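Long-time lurker. I teach an intro course on protein structure, and each term I like to show students one example going from raw sequence to a predicted 3D structure in token notation. This year I'd like something fresh instead of my usual example. Would anyone be willing to generate the tokens for the chain below so I can use it in lecture? Attribution to the forum is fine with me.
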Amino acid sequence: MITRTKNKTIGIVGGMGPEAGLNLMQAILNQTPAASDQDHLPVILMSLPGTITDRTSFLEGQTTINPAYSIAAIVKKLELAGADVVGLACNTTYSPEIFNVILQQLKQMNCNVQLINMPFETCRFIKENHKNVKRVGLMATNGTYKFGMYKSILQNFGYEVVLPDPLFQHNVIHNMIYNPVYGIKANAGSITQRATLLLERALGFFEAEQTDAVILGCTELSLLVKSLKVKTLPLIDASEVLALALCKASNESTASFFERGINPEQLHQLSFAPAYL
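-- Reply from a regular --
Happy to contribute to a lecture. Here you go:
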């Protein structure tokens, strides 16, 4: 929880998926100490799922339409609506093939919002709050897994990165998110037993690999872990970290990613690399 002083308006690009955007909004409310309605932070959520191409489908070549253009247009709409600091409620959008184009588009549109980088903030959160962690696992979509932004940032922070093989990644982790029958995206408002079983199987893999902590690197996974009765590993929820970073940026009580001197146009210097070849 944080104590507020001067508040900037938070903007959320939702719709990726829609429930994940709502969950981020709820996380922001939970992070805000408030005794009345007026004590809460100003937040604008735009959820326009029909306008945004699926991020993993683009990264895997199933469509040539880069969702970056629609996302950048929504960020600009948020700015026009009054947003000062913006978070994208989808980890896969931070893959350089998408995120770098978003930054280019925002520059061309003269958009001056502060854009928080969820993967970087998540890895920094581990570094600052989990001093004994050395081996970090990642659960994410195939797009996030293959294009490796979390792996690169974690390695830059000095961590060993634990990832499953591509078959396990697709059949277990990606399927619990995307399966059209039992996946999280296909069952808004409920969690299927099959998805919960796949989550337990995934956590079993990371336990066997002696992982110290696991990043929930997909905003849908925040919804799934709430169904767990027992958590045997520290789970770092990227959505919760993003919510905290947005609250702090709104409150101006701490420096965010870009405020710490890293220019958005130099983002490629973090040496993003594929998780596997």
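Some talking points for your students: The CA atoms of residues 180 and 186 lie 5 Å apart. The chain has a mean pLDDT of 88.
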